Amino acid sequence: MWLLDRFLKKLVRQGQLIIVESNGQRHSYGVSEGEAPVTVRFHDPEAPHFVASHPYMGSGEAYMDGRMTVDDEDVMGLVRLILKNTIRDNANMLEGGIIPRTLQHVTNRFQRFNWEKRSKQNVAHHYDLDDRLYNLFLDKDRQYSCGYFTDPNNNLDQAQLDKKIHIASKLALESGQRILDIGCGWGGMALFLSQIADVEVLGVTLSEEQLKVARKRAKEAGVEDRVKFELIDYREVKGRFDRIVSVGMFEHVGPPYYKSFFNHCRDLLTEDGVMLLHTIGRLGLPGATDPWTNKYIFPGGYCPALSEIVSASEHSGLILCDVENLRLHYMYTLNHWYENVLAARADIIKLYDIRFYRMWTFYLAGASAAFQYGQMCNYQIQYTRKRDSLPITRDYMFERETQLRAKS
C-alpha cells in the first residue's frame, strides 16, 4: 500500500478519496469540499501495488476483475475525482507509474499502424459486439459519436438529430449529388442525408454487423436504390463524389496514414467537392492513447491534435475552410450513454458478464471525464478542393441549419 499511498498523497488536492484496504485499514486523501467522498475498496492485499505500478492499466483491470470496487458502483465519481486532479502540474502521474514512458510511447506508436487487415480486426473488436448491446445505450438512430447539444438539457435523441443537421448544413447539399460516407456505422447519417436532399449516398464500413443493419434499414426505408452500403476499406473506394462526410472514423486511421487518407479523399472529390471530417481530437500537443483503452476498447485508436490533422491535410492540397471545436458536447453525450448503461446493468450482464459490464462503465466514465477535465475534444473540419466552392461567408450554414430544424 505504501506506493499507492505515496502516489495519492501527491495527487489528490480536490475532493476526497477514501481507500479501504483488504484488511479493513482506511486511508483518506484530499478534502470533501462539500461533496460526498469517493470510497474505493481493495479486496486483495496486492491490488493497491498493482494499481500504483501502472495506474491506467492497473485501475481498469483491477476494477474489471473485482479486485477493486467503488461504493455505490460510482466509477464515474472516482474517475472524475482523479482526472480533475491531474490537470494540475502533476498531470503526468497517471502516464505509467513505474513503467518507463518511453517504452509506452514506442508501443503506442507501433499500435497506430492500421494496415488494411489490422484495421478490420480492430473494428471488429469494438463494433462487431452483440448487436443488442448498442440498442441498450445509444439513441434510436444508433449514432455512436458526439451529439450536438443546442441545449445541455436536451435528450440524447434530440442531440443526435441536431448533430446530423449541424453536419448536413456544412455539406451544402444540392440535388443530384453523390455522397460518400466513410465509416458509416449503422447507416443513420447516410439515411438522414438521403431524406433531406435528393442525393445518392455510398456508405462504407469494415464492420460486418454494422453493414447488415445499415442495409436492412435502407431496404425498410425503400431507398436501397440510392443509399448503398459496402464492406470496404476507405483506401479501396473508387469513383468521384460531390461530398464526403466522415463521422467518428478518423480516430481509427492512425497517424502513419493521415497523409494517404487526405490524398485519397482529395482524389475522390469532384473539383467543386466539399468534405466534412468529424473526429475526436486532442487539445494542445500530440499525445498517446492510454494502454487500457488501447487494449480493451479501441485497439489501434488514436485521437489526434489539431496540428496533426492540419499538417497532414496540407500535403494533399485540400483547402481547410472551417474548423469548429465541440468542446463539451461529447461529455454530455457520454453522460447519457453512461446513465443508459447503468440502467441496463442486468441486461448487459446477461449478454456478457459482470466483467464486461464493469469494463464498459469504466470506459464511458473515463471518456466523459477526459472531455470534462482532460485533453479530449471534438473537431469538425471542412475542406474543399477549390476556394470558391462554397459561399464566401458562413451564413449559409446557419440558414440551412435553421431550415432543417424547422422541418424536423
TrEMBL record:
Keyword set includes tRNA-binding: no
Domain of life: Bacteria
GO molecular function per UniProt: methyltransferase activity
Keyword annotations from UniProtKB, A to Z: Lipid metabolism, Methyltransferase, S-adenosyl-L-methionine, Transferase
GO process terms (BP): lipid biosynthetic process; methylation
Family note: Belongs to the CFA/CMAS family.
Stated name of the protein: Cyclopropane-fatty-acyl-phospholipid synthase
